[in-house]
Amino acid sequence: MKDEWKIGPHKFSSRLILGTGKFADGDSMCAAVRASAAELITVALRRFNREKTEDDLYAPLASLEGIALMPNTSGARDADEACRAARLGRELSGSDIVKLEIHPNPHHLMPDPVETLAAAERLVKEGFHVMPYIAADPVLAKRLEEAGCASVMPLGAAIGSGQGLTTMAMVRLIVRESRIPVIVDAGLRAPSEAAAALEAGCDAVLVNSAVAAAEDPAAMAAAFADAVRAGRAARRAGLMAQGASAEATSPLTSFLGAEHRDE
Amino acid sequence: MNEVPEQIDPRPWLAAARGGARREDAMRALASDEPGPRELAALLSPAAGALLEPMARRAQALTRRHFGRTVQLYVPLYLSSHCPGGCLYCGFASDRAAPRHRLEPEQSEDEMDALKSMGFEEVLLLTGERCPGADYAYVRDCVARAARHFHNVNVEVFPMETGEYRGLAEAGCSGLTLYQETYDPGRYERFHRWGPKRDYRARLDAPERALRAGLRFAGLGALLGLSDPRYDLLALYRHAAALRKQYWRSGISISFPRIRDQEGGFRPDFPVSDRELAQFIYAFRLCLPDVPLVLSTRERPALRDGMAGVGISKMSVASRTTVGGYSGRTQYSEGQFEVSDGRGIDEFCAMLRAANLEPVFKNWEAVYR
């Protein structure tokens, strides 16, 4: 059976989503995308240059086959700006998927929950498949699901921090309650962290800095692809239950049954 | 008498920065997860000068983590060299004999067309101090024109009132750059011999007025060489920190201009060497890892090449400090200061690419206005 997940009507097999900022050039970005086997790619509207192709992320991405683009609203400080950016992104890319990012503080880029919910409600009504970037807040995640979002994207740690899955406890709560895909977005550094997110039941992870800032971005993208596959396979295989103490492979009480039989 | 406000006063850390900090203090600061003014002082200190290489390595790692392998590019456009100011160090000071020029609206359009065709999407519009030849209405008009050409328009002009900044934002301006020149009140008074710029507080508080009025970005800096750079840099850090806390939705960037040769022949009392400049930039990157740090064409090519992506995340390129000069239709010879890196855009971008860095021309979207 195919193991797919969906954003609206769009189906995906790969559970690794790649960001496109921070690469040294279009070639290394495309090499990383290919190595990642990602089918969904996010690109910042503020980096789209519809007039100058030499500074355009879109042209090299458009040359890749089998890739769905997800414009993001990075740079928006409030719901109004994000909605304007989403509409322009849809016009430019032809994609009805939008990664909703509203981070009013341009330094730490932490998402604004109030504005994000307001924008999500509006964009869903306008027919977008909305994928909001949020803090790992289980209540907000449910509110966004009720608003009709296609997924929720809780952060593992601050964008670009490479601190890993510091929000794991909250991510587990979100996964447990969610009826829409849960995608860990931001903060991951090592492929093992991506595997852990998939093992915990997340549907996908999104990475950018972890790949773009690696010494060999394409090789790191491939490593993340492997890790995501492993994490997903482990989740499907069913992890053994965790115990509070050691459990011997050869039970220590087996003799009790044997004694009974002797009688 | 001007006084440095308590919230940006560098003196609690000044002794450490001037030489009180030991090598161990600098090493501890270098390894700190939560660097603050104490750590900055140690990293600015002469003792940290022996740690330049590890500071550079950490600065590069932090720059790459926060900005990736990219360098954001912008271009300055000098609109006017008219100025009523008496700044001792400036080629535009009113007692300089050089003739004054101003771009008329249609000339500014020619210049903007030329810059746009070179690929720029971010422009910095510059004038001297407020004067009848280049007043608020003129600047606002130029901003509105530039906003039709570029995604990101910033100004480096005279300090304004809050309502004026609001008008600039409405015209399409995203941010301002305003250097305090020096944060040392006594030396500030000495250098600004006459004119509106003598008002230390009016200048110091202008970025706050601009951010309150709705501009999204404020670029700060001190003109290195005018005063003890360690005094100025500690105050600059505190200024940035205070603005970030108050205007948390706004972006702060920091520039490191060094005084250059200019008409008037001013020579700085506190020259900053290349090694010191690099150390100061690394120190800021370590203490403000997510703040864009800017280096202009004041610096020579080899220095700029070495700093790109190693602390520095944003650079000007192909700059002219003359009024106009990009379109070929408007060419005046006298600039505000000498440009050290005269490379054209292709040559500069080739350097960045050879260093495995991507030149980024567009990193803002006009739809956010």
From TrEMBL, chain A:
Q: Which domain of life is it from?
A: Bacteria
Top EC class for this record: transferase
Keyword set, alphabetical order:
Cytoplasm, Schiff base, Thiamine biosynthesis, Transferase
Q: Which residues form the Thiazole synthase ThiG domain?
A: 7-251
Q: Give GO terms for biological process.
A: thiamine diphosphate biosynthetic process
Gene Ontology terms: cellular component: cytoplasm
What InterPro entries has UniProt attached to this entry?
A: Aldolase_TIM, Thiazole_synthase_ThiG, ThiG
A Pfam family that this protein carries is ThiG
Q: Which reaction does it catalyse?
A: [ThiS sulfur-carrier protein]-C-terminal-Gly-aminoethanethioate + 2-iminoacetate + 1-deoxy-D-xylulose 5-phosphate = [ThiS sulfur-carrier protein]-C-terminal Gly-Gly + 2-[(2R,5Z)-2-carboxy-4-methylthiazol-5(2H)-ylidene]ethyl phosphate + 2 H2O + H(+)
- Leader sequence residues: none
Annotated residues that bind 1-deoxy-D-xylulose 5-phosphate are located at 160, 186-187, 208-209
User: Where found in the cell?
Assistant: Cytoplasm
Q: Give yes or no: UniProt keyword Transmembrane helix.
A: no
What Enzyme Commission number(s) appear in the record? 2.8.1.10
Main subcellular localisation? cytoplasm
Q: Which residues form the active site?
A: 99
- Pathway involvement? Cofactor biosynthesis; thiamine diphosphate biosynthesis
Q: Which GO terms describe its molecular function?
A: thiazole synthase activity
Assembly and partners? Homotetramer. Forms heterodimers with either ThiH or ThiS.
By its UniProt entry, which HAMAP family does this protein fall under?
Answer: ThiG
Q: What does this protein do?
A: Catalyzes the rearrangement of 1-deoxy-D-xylulose 5-phosphate (DXP) to produce the thiazole phosphate moiety of thiamine. Sulfur is provided by the thiocarboxylate moiety of the carrier protein ThiS. In vitro, sulfur can be provided by H(2)S.
Similarity comment: family membership: Belongs to the ThiG family.
Q: What protein am I looking at?
A: Thiazole synthase
From TrEMBL, chain B:
- Protein's UniProt keywords contain Lyase: yes
| Lineage top rank: taxon | Bacteria
**UniProt-listed Gene3D superfamilies:** Aldolase class I (3.20.20.70)
The cofactor(s) it depends on are:
[4Fe-4S] cluster
SMART domains xrefs: BATS (SM00876)
Which Pfam family, an example, fits this chain? Radical_SAM
Q: What is its EC number?
A: 4.1.99.19
- Alphabetized UniProt keyword annotations: 4Fe-4S, Iron, Iron-sulfur, Lyase, Metal-binding, S-adenosyl-L-methionine
| InterPro entries according to UniProt | Aldolase_TIM, BATS_dom, rSAM, rSAM_sf, ThiH, ThiH/NoCL/HydG-like
Give the molecular function GO annotations: 2-iminoacetate synthase activity; 4 iron, 4 sulfur cluster binding; iron ion binding
Q: Where is the Biotin and thiamin synthesis-associated domain?
A: 255-359
Q: Which CDD domains match?
A: Radical_SAM
Q: What class of enzyme is it?
A: lyase
Q: Which residues form a coiled coil?
A: none
**How is this protein named in the record?**
2-iminoacetate synthase
Q: Which organism is it from?
A: Kiritimatiella glycovorans
Organism classification: Bacteria, Pseudomonadati, Kiritimatiellota, Kiritimatiellia, Kiritimatiellales
